[in-house]
Structure formats: C-alpha cells, structure tokens
Amino acid sequence: MMTEPSAPITVAIGGFGAIGQTVARRLDAGLPGLRLTAVSARDHARAQSAMAGFRTPVPVVALGDLAGLADVVVECVPAAAFPLVAEPALRAGKTLMVISVGALLTHTHLTALAQAHGGRITVPTGALLGLDAVQAAAQGEITLSRMVTRKPPGGLAGAPYLLEHGIDVSGLTAPLLVFAGTAREAVRGFPANVNVVAALSLAGIGPDRTTIEIWADPAVDRNHHTITVESDSAGFTMSISNIPSAENPKTGKITALSIIAALKKLASPLQIGT
Hints:
5-stranded parallel β-sheet; 11 helices; Rossmann fold; Dihydrodipicolinate Reductase, domain 2; 274 residues; 2 domains
C-alpha cells in the first residue's frame, strides 16, 4: 500500500547576515523534505532586494512573526536580539535552532519555556569538533573539559571584555593571551566569538567547570580550537581550524554548513550521530 509523502518541514530564519543568507540560499536551491517560508532582517529593504534573486522568494517579516510561519526557526541574530527570536518560537511549540549558544547560558528560563509549550531547542555542532563524544562521556564522569582558542586579532576586535579591560589587539606581532576563565565568563565577555565553548559546556560538565583560554594570534588566518576532555570512559584531544567567513571574520564558514547539516538531519530517514 502506497503512503502519501509527508509534508516538508517549514523553516524560517531570524537574521539575514552571512550565516542566514547562506542557509536561506541552500534551502531555496532545494533540500529534500525542507522548505524556506520566511526570513527576518534588521535591514528590511536590503533583505527584500536579496530575495529578488531567489528562485522562490519568501516574506521578510519581524522577528516575532517567524514562529507563526514555520515548524523550525533558525536563530542567526546578534546576542542582544536573541530573546526576540527564541521566546516566540518556544511559546508557539516550535523547534528553535540556536546559533548564539552562549545566550542559552544567560536566558536559562528557555528550557522550561520549551517544556511548558512543547517546543524544542536544538544546537548544531557548528565549530565544535567531537560534540557527540563529549555528550557520550558526560553520561559517565568528566573530570576535565578545556578549550584553547586562537583567532586572528581582527576576529576578536570590539569584544566587550577587551573594551572593558583596555586590551588592544591591533598591531600585534606575537600571540597574546586575552582571556582565561570559565565558559560562562567567556560568553559574557566575547558574545560573538566563543559560542563554541558554550556548546562544549552544555554537552559536558556545565559552564562553570568548563574552562577556556582565548589568544589573539597574528600568525594565524583561521579560527583554531583545541579541546581536551578527560573522563572515566575516555580521554581525548581534538583540534579544528575553521576558515573565517569573508563577510564576518568573527564566524567560521563551517557554522552555516553545520546549520544546513542539522536541518537535513531533521528531515532525513537516516540520522548519523547522537
């Protein structure tokens, strides 16, 4: 007996910068089982102009309206606008795909909000190598979870922590350690730079036991992350070098691709990984 094909999963994107546009264009080009239905952007006119080049243009709406137009809302906004995307989506019982993972450490009520309304929060792997291994190790006992991040100085310029402490990363000729502390402290001081350590902390032993060093390194042209985990089931070290986005050097190119992979996983009959 033949069964009717299921309706595609509808997707709306909050934020239409480098990441949001990359994801939107891939959806517009066609991803099986998925359909783009709306986007939101600070520059409404510019987003509408970009939409003119899409095969199937979709409405450009306010952040709060995205939840009523899709099954999945992808958050790609600056941290300050995060609640404007997250709260309406979860109150509507939708799936919220989060890129500003560090904001989850500040807006701790969102998990309860999702539970109360039947919503779900999902975090793509992004620039974090080995997220599945960390989650598996966390089912036992993790005794150490540490990250060392090295970024081109331009990718860290303007971070609140640097401004507050008068740290100038311009004109460096040698690597400079600009921060050492917990994941919770790091995402507060570098909201656009270290969402990766927030994801590591949520997968593992939490933001107050996960630690990070952040280096501004003029010798590198990629975002380097080295993660070390020790547990009662395994000890492992992982390193990844992400090519910065041409449009936004604070973000790696792999971030948008990770969102696309996570969306495809939602619609696929075969799922690889935890």
